[in-house]
Design a protein that fits this description.
The chain contains 2 helices and 10 strands, in the order H-E-E-E-E-E-E-E-E-E-E-H. With 191 residues, the protein is of the alpha+beta class.
């Protein structure tokens, strides 16, 4: 009977480790969901179509681009800022270039500043929704289609926002399966 105490304690500790592991595993998707729903932390919304109403009031949108430390690409907005009517659908482009001699895959994380505007900045289509693979020397312009929800003018905190900055950071990811093979096949066909 003396073993019942230590066995119980070990089982409790294992249970605590399992519960803590499950909570930490679930925290990332839960936080992502929370940010998408609330716009917390500058997370933008995603829509399938533009706003139904376009206001006579304008807002300035600034575009920012950066790279994670080891990402070998160059990356920049084509236009640094634009002014548009609130509710108007707009199209902006970012340019990426792979100056290396190998294919490089990348994924973009993004946010909006000020954070109060995150829930009102809506993307209809964006290069950030998918991973990007650039072949050696390839240069591309990647579009983002967006609008600012007219509800921003009635929000207690966001109604004072006159400028929104959309920021993207590209980081390198593993090449998708077959991406290197396609590059080798293309090289073989040109030889």
């Amino acid at each position: 009977m003396a073993m019942a105490g230590p066995k119980k304690t070990v089982l409790q500790l294992v249970g605590v480790v399992v519960v803590m592991g499950a909570l930490s595993w679930a925290s990332v998707p839960f936080y992502d969901w929370f940010c998408r729903v609330t716009g917390f932390g500058g997370t933008t919304g995603v829509e399938t179509a533009g706003a139904e109403q376009v206001l006579d009031r304008t807002i300035k949108i600034r575009f920012d681009a950066s790279l994670e430390r080891d990402m070998p690409w160059t990356f920049k907005p084509v236009v640094r800022e634009m002014e548009l009517k609130i509710g108007e659908t707009a199209l902006a482009f970012y340019e990426a270039h792979n100056p290396t001699d190998r294919p490089v895959a990348g994924s973009a994380s993004y946010n909006v500043f000020p954070y109060e505007a995150g829930g009102f900045f809506n993307k209809i289509d964006c290069f950030c929704f998918e991973q990007q693979v650039l072949q050696p020397g390839e240069r591309v312009q990647m579009p983002v289609t967006f609008f600012v929800d007219p509800e921003i003018v009635t929000d207690r905190d966001a109604k004072y926002v006159h400028t929104i900055t959309l920021s993207y950071t590209f980081y390198e990811i593993d090449l998708p399966e077959g991406a290197a093979d396609r590059d080798e096949l293309a090289g073989a066909k040109t030889n």
